[in-house]
């Protein structure tokens, strides 16, 4: 069931009012709509945030990996 022209105008007016009153909420609603419509599988902000975290903590990630390898070698050599 499609919306009439009057209903579409009312919704557009509500959207414009929301954008004026709370732009952050309007941005989030638009992002949710893009995700649900299949336009954005992964939100870009989340992906960028993870990439920045990984770059900032790359030495920790490698250190933990090296520690795991050393402990595994130690366990194998002592058995």
Automatic annotation (TrEMBL):
InterPro entries: DUF3040. Keywords: Membrane, Transmembrane, Transmembrane helix. The chain crosses the membrane at residues 54-77. This is DUF3040 domain-containing protein. The lineage of its organism: Bacteria, Bacillati, Actinomycetota, Actinomycetes, Streptosporangiales.
């Amino acid at each position: 069931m499609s919306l009439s022209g009057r209903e579409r105008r009312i919704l557009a007016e509500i959207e414009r009012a929301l954008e004026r009153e709370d732009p952050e909420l309007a941005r989030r609603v638009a992002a949710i709509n893009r995700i649900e419509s299949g336009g954005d599988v992964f939100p870009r902000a989340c992906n960028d945030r993870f990439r920045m975290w990984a770059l900032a903590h790359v030495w920790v990630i490698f250190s933990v990996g090296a520690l795991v390898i050393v402990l595994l070698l130690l366990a194998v050599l002592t058995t």
